[in-house]
Design brief:
By secondary structure, the chain is α/β, with parallel strands linked by helices. Helix content is 39%, strand content 13%. It has helices at residues 5-13, 19-28, 31-46, 94-110, 112-120, 180-192, 201-214, 225-240, 278-281, 293-300, 323-335, 355-360, 386-393, 420-436, 451-473, 497-508, 527-546, 558-561, 583-598, and strands spanning 84-86, 147-151, 154-157, 162-165, 218-222, 244-249, 261-263, 269-271, 284-288, 305-310, 339-343, 366-369, 380-384, 477-482, 485-490, 511-512, 518-520, 550-552. A seven-stranded mixed sheet has the order 5-13-12-11-10-6-9, sandwiched between helices. A four-stranded mixed sheet has the order 2-3-4-16. A three-stranded antiparallel sheet has the order 14-15-17. Helix 2 (19-28) packs parallel to helix 19 (583-598) and helix 8 (225-240) crosses helix 13 (386-393).
Amino acid sequence: MATSVDDVLDNILAKKIDRQDAMRRFSELPDEDKHRVMTGLRARLHGDAPEASASTQAPEGQAPGEHAPEGHAPEEHASAPPTLQSVHEGDISDAQKAYIAALSQRFAERAAKSKHNALVHQKHFVDQRKVAGLKRPLKSMQFQLTYERAEGPYLYDVDGNRYVDITGDNGVNFFGHQPQFLKDALIRRLDQGYPLVAYSEDLFESARLFCQITGHERMVYAQTGTEAVMWATRMARAATGKKKVVIYDGSYHGLSDNVLAIRGRNGATLSAGLGMLQEFADQLIILDYGDHSNLEFIEKNAADIACVLTEPVQSRFPARQPVEYLQELRRITLEQDIVLIFDEMVTGFRAGPRGAEGFYKVKPDLATYGKVSGGGMPTGIIAGLAKYMDYVDGGVWGFDDNSMPSLRRAVMAGTHTQNSLKVSATLAVCREMLKICDRAGGCDPMTCDCAIGALNRATAAMCGEINAHFVQARVPMHLEQFSSLFRLFVTDDPYGLTRELFIILLRMNGVETSTSGNNFLNLSHRAEDLRAIVEAFRRSVDEMVEHGFFHESPAGEASVAHAPAAAPATAPAPAAQDSGRSQIELLRERILADLRGVNGKGH
């Protein structure tokens, strides 16, 4: 969604967004625009701005009377708002500042070499991760650890600390660190040599087994996941002769300009950032995932749509699992000559041999893979129906007859596309997957009695236990989960100080988590590791409550701070509170207080 001065002002005053959304958008603005927002809010609130209706309105992009999209309900996290509220960065007390200072000292002593490395080596080493979630009060602790080694479910830093690893290497690590079968495969390939473009027996066998496991007809290697998605959309355009690509709000498909954009006001698609051209964004249509009303839009505009690209389970919102929507989408795309592409970069092999496809029982035309299937090597894979895959190499033909490629090729090439190391790693992963679960047609991700099914159920049970403690502690936090992926949400301040402090405390309690928000269990985690994770979450939450980082909400404010973003438009109008003041008045006052706190202090 677009973030601009006008967006923030208009949406606050029209009550289209709640406090946490307003603060998120405000935090994304440049400093000069933050000042303009504050000035504009004060001017409008004390001037002639018309009063917004106090009745509940439909979310932006949702027609009056419509219900929230299928699969979005879990995003609201709870039917009743939690009692406690997150402390905002601009509102921390002197006692909390003293606590942070003491914690910073403890952390610096615990990870002294890592902190030194992060400080000194940034002169030459560039890394975007170091600014992820950066908060001024916490930045002395927001440095990346330097790891010395990794083994099984554990990471070991250069200061001698051991961590239970739930980062999952952004979803790559499914078998634990240094699984013997992968080490053996890579050592064997190193001993044999690793030419980059020559064919090998491993190349042929990996392609055969990958298609056998996933049920696709043909596959091709790409160099990265981003490249795989970029190529898949190119193949769809080549096959259909159409330009437009449908993607969904909340999905992530890599960093290619071809599929990276944001939804602005009135549904317009905008380029996502500096250096990215609006001309690319103009070819994208961003819809709400699971909203059945947009299926009619796809049908009506089928003449322009080359493909629909979706994460079948969104990695940023794992609770979005709109089964009926996806099944109906499959019907429409078949009837309207639209290529359906599943981005299974995270769910592929992790959810089961056939990924999220095995969960939905929906077969796409094309699918992209890379993380688990590459065994830790830089890998992208596109697989699917031969009628589309043939646009890579022209199809199948003979050598001793008059046959020739039957199709013009869509240009695809890359020096490391068939790098022998990743090919051998993929072959080893395919063989291991068949040992774990060899069911023809794949298995159900949650009910199968294989090791993957057991891991998925263990993840669900662990998340359930942690969520129960969040409820007991009355904190606005929640875990969403699909298969062995789980993601932490702070429901009243999604990207605020409390989330970043919680990540630091998890480290102090021996659990290394991901600043991206996505976390994973893997097949090497044992029962005692899951117990350690649960206890680390509990201790971290309890310590934050003890020091007031979650506090009692002022009278009449909790319902505003925690109002569900996707409440049905037919819900009854909220009652006026606090001597007749409306919720929008309370919301305005709270936002102004937050903005005053943030101004001059930064994130």
